[in-house]
Amino acid sequence: MGPHPAVAAIRLAVRRVLHDVLTLAPTTSSPQGAGEPPLVLVACSGGADSMALASALAFEAPRLGVRAGGVTVDHGLQPGSDLRAAEVVSRLTALDLDPVEAVRVDVGREGGPEAAAREARYAALDAVADRHGAAAILLGHTRDDQAETVLLGLARGSGIRSLSGMATASGAGGRYRRPFLGLDRQTARKACMVQSLPVWDDPHNADPAYTRSRVRHEALPVLEKALGKGVVEALARTAQLSRDDADALDSWAAAVEPSVRDDSGDLEVAKLYALPPAVRRRVLRRAAIAAGSPAGSLFARHLEEVDRLITGWRGQGAINLPGRVAVRRQGGRLVLRQG
Ligand SMILES: Nc1ncnc2c1ncn2[C@@H]1O[C@H](COP(=O)(O)OP(=O)(O)OP(=O)(O)O)[C@@H](O)[C@H]1O
């Protein structure tokens, strides 16, 4: 008898990603373990999604000649979090993953509690991956997480890039992989249950103080009730379609940007005016970043205001963007300067 369908599904999802990793990096090229088979790490919170992921990695990796390890991040936000991290380490070790480690991080405050924890977590995961020369780090985000991300993006009102949710591969060189993005959370839970894997439910996931938790426990159930069960799948599909559209528009903008600049690098208003708004705003965004605006602080409302220098010109003064970048219209030119 084969494995339970849920177990078969999580293994298949991981196998696909491992094949991909092996194609890109058949052996380890970094100094740590050079020439050895690639190392793939699972980022594990101890929750059901990432425990299912760890079990599937532990099963598939040796069959494909891949080394498999695990890492858990202790955010230090709750009393006893160090004990829990140690428990996760022993659960990952019991799955025969090696190396396995817990990393303690200090979570700052910038951008709110969720963003600060995420920032600290990814920095720690990057450091562990670098230290071990890992080819990939697997994350347990599911289709349900993707649907939540799309809904959060929709509510921000900042365009299709934020509707495109999480990528299957992201980070430096695409090192972060999300094998479960096409699987529902229920499948991961079920896979843990039938394999008798102990899982830990993060109280933050149910804490209504967190926006994502409210989306998960309040907003999505209401949407499902009103629109039907398929809404999660539809939101996840929206992510993929939006990502493709956003990628296409980004490359369009990258291709036309040089042609709207004059000899001194300023932007020509007439040429910008002729572009479709979606492309024009992307060109403006690229120009702002090139002038020194940090990408993460540049929002849709900033670009709309700059856009009005082109489409709603009534002699406005300079527009100030994050990173002390000022944009002014001078004659038929937009001039961006940091100062
Ligand atoms: N403390 C942590 N240590 C290591 N990896 C983590 C940690 N927290 C989250 N991750 C990784 O990020 C993914 C998404 O985490 P998040 O908390 O957003 O989702 P989740 O649905 O609660 O996942 P899980 O059920 O695995 O906890 C996890 O599946 C895991 O791969």
From TrEMBL:
<feature type="domain" description="tRNA(Ile)-lysidine synthase substrate-binding">
    <location>
        <begin position="267"/>
        <end position="334"/>
    </location>
</feature>
<comment type="similarity">
    <text>Belongs to the tRNA(Ile)-lysidine synthase family.</text>
</comment>
<dbReference type="GO" id="GO:0005524">
    <property type="term" value="F:ATP binding"/>
</dbReference>
<keyword id="KW-0819">tRNA processing</keyword>
<keyword id="KW-0963">Cytoplasm</keyword>
<dbReference type="Pfam" id="PF01171">
    <property type="entry name" value="ATP_bind_3"/>
</dbReference>
<dbReference type="InterPro" id="IPR012795">
    <property type="entry name" value="tRNA_Ile_lys_synt_N"/>
</dbReference>
<dbReference type="GO" id="GO:0032267">
    <property type="term" value="F:tRNA(Ile)-lysidine synthase activity"/>
</dbReference>
<dbReference type="GO" id="GO:0006400">
    <property type="term" value="P:tRNA modification"/>
</dbReference>
<dbReference type="GO" id="GO:0005737">
    <property type="term" value="C:cytoplasm"/>
</dbReference>
<dbReference type="InterPro" id="IPR012094">
    <property type="entry name" value="tRNA_Ile_lys_synt"/>
</dbReference>
<feature type="domain" description="tRNA(Ile)-lysidine/2-thiocytidine synthase N-terminal">
    <location>
        <begin position="40"/>
        <end position="218"/>
    </location>
</feature>
<keyword id="KW-0436">Ligase</keyword>
<dbReference type="InterPro" id="IPR011063">
    <property type="entry name" value="TilS/TtcA_N"/>
</dbReference>
<feature type="binding site">
    <location>
        <begin position="45"/>
        <end position="50"/>
    </location>
    <ligand>
        <name>ATP</name>
    </ligand>
</feature>
<dbReference type="InterPro" id="IPR015262">
    <property type="entry name" value="tRNA_Ile_lys_synt_subst-bd"/>
</dbReference>
<dbReference type="InterPro" id="IPR014729">
    <property type="entry name" value="Rossmann-like_a/b/a_fold"/>
</dbReference>
<keyword id="KW-0067">ATP-binding</keyword>
<keyword id="KW-0547">Nucleotide-binding</keyword>
<protein>
    <recommendedName>
        <fullName>tRNA(Ile)-lysidine synthase</fullName>
        <ecNumber>6.3.4.19</ecNumber>
    </recommendedName>
</protein>
<dbReference type="Pfam" id="PF09179">
    <property type="entry name" value="TilS"/>
</dbReference>
<comment type="function">
    <text>Ligates lysine onto the cytidine present at position 34 of the AUA codon-specific tRNA(Ile) that contains the anticodon CAU, in an ATP-dependent manner. Cytidine is converted to lysidine, thus changing the amino acid specificity of the tRNA from methionine to isoleucine.</text>
</comment>
